[in-house]
Structures are given as C-alpha cells and as structure tokens.
C-alpha cells in the first residue's frame, strides 16, 4: 500500500478561513488513514537508514528488491544480516556507490530507480493473518504474524517468511483455501507490526484453538498465554 501523504500547504492569499478548512481536512484524512491501518506521510524505506541488525518491513522490501536484481539469493526474512549486507555491498559496487553495506537514501533511491518494490511478502503475511485470525482482536492478529517471524528465526523451521507460511500441514488457512481471501487493512497493519518486531506471544512457535483442536500433540505443549480463541505454545 502506498502511504497517504497529507498536504498542509495553503497559499496566504486565501486567508485564515482557508487555513482552518485545510487543517480540518488534513486532520480528517489523517484520522481515516489511521483507522485503516495506513501510514500518514510516513517516510518510505528510501528515507530510512538500514543496516545490519535491523528487523523491519523495510528490510523485507530491500531484500525483495535485491532479489529481483539478482544480488540476494536467500529467502526473505525481514532481518538485515550478513547475507543482506553482502548483497547491498555488491549492488553498491555495481552502481559506483560507496560500498559500506549500509542502505541510506542514496542507495535506496538507486534501488527504487532500478526496480519497483512489489510488497509480495507483506501481502502473503497479511493473507495468512486474515485467513487464520480475522475474527480475533488486533493483538491476536499480530500474534499470528509474530509466530511466523519467530519460526523464521528459530532454526527449527524454514528460513524465510514465504517458506514458513507455505510449509505443508502447518497452517489451516493455507490448506483449506482461506489464505486466498482478500485481506483487510487491519490484516496488513497487523502484518507490519509483526514485521517490525511486535510479539505479544513472547516467542511462541505454535498456536491452536483448544475448543476445536484434535491434535493431542498440540494440547500437550505448555501454554505460554491465551489471546482470544488461541493458545500459544513453544
């Protein structure tokens, strides 16, 4: 989703009345955008500094762009590790930029000139959250996204967001087709929260609904906490 940019520029010739009207419109647009889970005048990834150790939705975008250009051949994780850093250096060298492995505005602007950020990984995570937890609270939706990210980092599951989502037999929504439903703005917002490090589960790797679950293995695992209809476990 493209960020909504609210303009506050008003010509002086229109006077105070116009200024007040413009201010009210800006506030209304901002409130609507926040309600929909969008970002109001938020800087794009190109306006941010990305470097090793960062985990965020902007790193997901960076990895997707580098992959499209042939510099990044690992799975998209959202974590800026040594593989991402090396890919950035290769891109910088090829473009005649300072090859420091740090993505500032100059490097990001060059990337954006070369390839458009499609946001496919964000969409996949939002679709999973919608399919698995659309009836849950916002916290419960973020929690489902966090489980995916925790699995990526655990070493016990595939090492990319997409591979975790599509791992056979892991998520009901993928198996029964609910993954293909259109995600809401709230699902996208929850996905962004999880990608940016929010984890209401405190490290959970699994979750299940105790009212309908039939797996004794799931029920046997110690419960970390319950959010809505889901018990979260390690």
Automatic annotation (TrEMBL):
Q: What keywords appear on the UniProt entry?
A: Hydrolase
Q: Which domain of life is it from?
A: Bacteria
Give the Peptidoglycan binding-like domain ranges.
56-111
Q: Give the start-end ranges of region Disordered.
A: 1-20
Q: Which SUPFAM superfamilies match?
A: PGBD-like
Q: Which InterPro entries match?
A: Cell_wall_hydrolase_SleB, Peptidoglycan-bd-like, PGBD-like_sf, PGBDSf, SleB_dom1
Q: Where is the Cell wall hydrolase SleB domain?
A: 135-232
Record field: compositional bias (Basic residues): 9-20
In alphabetical order, the GO MF annotations are: hydrolase activity
Signal sequence span is none
Q: What is this protein called?
A: Cell wall hydrolase
Question: From which source organism is this entry?
Answer: Paenibacillus cucumis
